[in-house]
Amino acid sequence: MLRSFFAKEEGQGLVEYALILVLIAVVVIGALTLLGGSIDGIFRDINDTLQTRP
After folding, report:
1. What distance in Å separates the CA atoms of residue 20 and residue 25, rounded to the nearest whole number?
2. Which are the contacts of 39, defined by CB distance < 8 A and separation ≥ 6?
3. Cα 16 to Cα 25: distance, rounded to the nearest angstrom
4. First to last CA, the chain
5. How far are the Cα atoms of 27, 38, 39, 41 from residue 52, in angstroms, in the given order?
6. Distance from C-alpha of 32 to C-alpha of 34, rounded to nearest angstrom
7. Which phi and psi (to 5°) does residue 8 adopt?
8. For residue range 26-51, what is the model confidence (pLDDT) as tens digits?
9. CA–CA dist 18, 12 (Å, integer)
10. Membrane-crossing residues (predicted)?
11. Residues near 8 by Cβ (< 8 Å), separated by ≥ 6?
C-alpha cells in the first residue's frame, strides 16, 4: 500500500506547473523591483505634464 502511494505520478504535472508559475512570479517581481524607480519616474513625469496643462 505504501509503495503504491509513492509510485503514483498523477500530481506530478500539477507540481511542475506550480513550480513554473513560481519561477515566473519570481522573475516578474525581480524585474519590477529593478525597474521600479524608472517606472515611478515616468509616471511622475506624466502626472506633472497633465497637471501643468490648462
Report:
1. 9
2. 32
3. 14
4. 77
5. 37, 21, 20, 17
6. 5
7. -70, 140
8. 999 999 899 888 888 999 999 999 98
9. 10
10. 20-43
11. none
